[in-house]
Amino acid sequence: MKAVVWHAIGDIRLDDVPEPKIQDRYDAVVRITASAICGTDLHFVRGTMPGMAPGRILGHEAVGVVEEVGSGVRDFRPGDRVVVPSTVGCGSCSYCRAGYYAQCDRANPGGPQAGTVFFGGPEAAGGLDGLQAQYARVPYAHVGLVPLPDTVDDAQGVLLSDIYPTAWFGARLAEIGTGDTVAILGGGPVGQAAVACARLQGAGRIILVDGVPGRLDLAARQHAEVVDFNAEDPVEAIRELTGGIGVDRVVDAVGVDAQRPARGPAAEQAAGRAEQDERERARAAPDARPSGDTWVPGDAPSQAARWAVRAVAKAGTIGTVGVYPPRVETYPFGEAFMKNLTLKSGNCNHRAIVPHLVSLVAAGALDPSPLATRWPAVEDVIEAYASFDRREQGWTKVALDFGGEGRMPPASGEHAGSGAATTAGAGGTRAAGQGG
Q1: Which residue has the higher pLDDT, 396 or 352?
Q2: Would strands 247-252 and 312-320 be described as parallel, antiparallel, or unpaired?
Q3: Per-residue model confidence (pLDDT) at position 425
Q4: Pairing of strands 205-210, 225-228
Q5: Is 9 helix (H, G, I), strand (E, B) or coil?
Q6: What's the CATH architecture for 173-345?
Q7: Which residue, among 176, 157, 190, 158, has the nearest Cα to 359 in the 3D structure?
Q8: Domain 2-162+349-434: which topology?
């Protein structure tokens, strides 16, 4: 089968690899009809998340059709359309039963202290092959699959695999409630999804900070108040927008690959931190292998964390879902302490959230699909990775259409384009999702 395979930092390829097989009674094999590229995948190629094994299939977002199930899987059968949550849990341990699927005691071969397991990640994260392939093996499939009704098409469903659950989780970590003023740092896929999720959770005002024009435009179409950190100091802008107080809640959807401002007043301040930022970058990505302007790690690893702490009001809450790998050790904890801030972070408990989001989409309350701004051919996936990595105009979220029987193409869901909490704003068009 065709699959996107990690060979080394800066080296990924579309390879022919063996099809997966059932290995355990709780396994399923799923034929992938749509997958997607995530910013987390870029960490492996940029070198900001270590421990990848050569030959690992990438990807942790997919919808598809069940092909085969093990003898222990009682709730799915061949032919079922499903979405695959990105993290893996057994469903039986105390953590899973409490909804903390990302901290399952049994899924990681490294044992209970080893932490989150997800598809297409490093050995420390379970060493599972990923979902950017024609077929995938799903362990603990009786828990690790969520059924998709035919009212939810592939474009909607693939965004419920990771991006929207992570955004929803980030909003919950930030404790967003009715009337809150919220800042979202980062206008990539999770940040864009967080606008809709924050609104659904009751936010009164939403301010999104980024430096890429296309991302700012997409957020503005969702009626977020946007701040361009290449044009103004984002912390000062947020304070001005909030009467000098700061926001009630912050969602950090950036993480370790933050980019230093290129111009404007924030760039002048960042210049004074250049040496410190370089030391942090060298620690975060010591083995980086950029190729020109591609696969370049972020040059300001703690920038989003610093902006979050300074932009939030006293006694506010920060929810961090942007990835900070274990070797990133810099955080402005002293400032957070002196402001009585609540800090929450971590990997999304996808399986606890995905069923609810599927119901919202099926009911027409949420339409995530406009966020899938590019659908390249599978044969062009490596070029698509590079365009996504460089944050090129229009490449906010990249989905991959593997096709085949059971595929439901974009705009075939019952509520296509009608969700009040759509990424494109109320009444937004689905046309953006058809780009090649």
Answers
A1: 352
A2: parallel
A3: 45
A4: parallel
A5: coil
A6: 3-Layer(aba) Sandwich (3.40)
A7: 157
A8: Quinone Oxidoreductase; Chain A, domain 1 (3.90.180)
Closest CA to 115 of 343, 347, 351: 347
Element containing residue 276 per DSSP (H, E): helix 274-284
Residue 427: band (very low, low, confident or very high) from pLDDT cuts 50, 70, 90: very low
* Cβ neighbours of residue 356 closer than 8 Å, sequence gap 6 or more: none
What would the two tokens of residue 381 be? 């996936």
User: Is residue 104 within 8 Å of 85, Cβ to Cβ?
Assistant: no
Per the rule left: phi > 0, alpha: psi between -120 and 50, beta: everything else, 140 is left
Domain map of the chain by residue range? 2-162+349-434, 173-345
Whether 232 contacts 266, CB under 8 Å: yes
Instruction: Report the C-alpha gap between 1 and 370 in whole angstroms.
Output: 29
Cβ(322)–Cβ(72) under 8 Å? no
Is the separation of the CB atoms in 380 and 17 below 8 Å?
no
Strands, E, within 286-391: which ranges?
312-320, 342-345
Least Cα distance to 357 among 367, 371, 344 occurs for 367
* Confidence (pTM): 0.93
Q: Which residue has the tokens 């083995």?
A: 287
Give me the DSSP letters along 356-383. HHHHHHHHTS---GGG--B---GGGHHH
Beta-sheet pairing, 81-84 with 146-147: antiparallel
Q: Taking the CB of residue 434, how many other CB atoms lie within 10 A of it?
A: 15
Res 430 pLDDT > 70: no
- For 67-94, the pLDDT digits (tens) are 999 999 999 999 999 999 999 999 999 9
106 C-beta neighbours (distance < 10 Å), count = 17
Confidence of residue 325 (pLDDT cuts 50, 70, 90): confident
Q: What is the pLDDT of residues 97-112, one digit of tens each?
A: 999 999 999 999 999 9
Assign 3-state DSSP to the chain and report helix, strand, coil percentages, each to 5: 30, 20, 50
**Rg value, the chain, Cα:** 20
Burial 250-278 (b: 16+ CB within 10 A, else e): bbbbbbbbbbbbeebbbeeebeeeeeebe
